[in-house]
Q: What sequence folds into this?
């Protein structure tokens, strides 16, 4: 099996999610930096991999995947032997429900309220 390649920056929460799964499963991978702050995700080369211009994107076994939940589902099933799956369909659904709530309703307000106000505001003093 060829090593998966993860595209993104280590600071990204979603890139960290993918890398954490790979690390915990003992799967070797390559990390290719794609700087979200200088527009690299909008380059024609990157948009050919991920038409939404977001990170992470993963190349594995000749295929390209984007969207963290799709990537982690695939990696867990195909490469980690379902190590991170819960034992019942209801528990699995509850886990996905919590993940969707965080992605849909919590992430953006948290970044705006915590990261921008705390890190950027205080660093500008």
A:
């Amino acid at each position: 099996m060829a090593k998966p390649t993860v595209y993104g920056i280590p600071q990204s929460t979603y890139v960290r999610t993918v890398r954490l799964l790979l690390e915990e499963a003992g799967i070797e991978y390559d990390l290719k930096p794609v700087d979200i702050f200088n527009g690299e995700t909008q380059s024609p080369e990157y948009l050919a991999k991920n038409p939404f211009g977001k990170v992470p994107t993963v190349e594995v076994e000749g295929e390209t995947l984007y969207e963290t939940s799709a990537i982690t589902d695939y990696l867990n099933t195909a490469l980690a032997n379902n190590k991170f799956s819960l034992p019942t369909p209801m528990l699995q659904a509850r886990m996905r429900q919590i993940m969707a709530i965080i992605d849909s309703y919590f992430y953006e307000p948290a970044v705006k309220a915590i990261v921008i106000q705390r890190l950027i505001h205080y660093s500008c003093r």
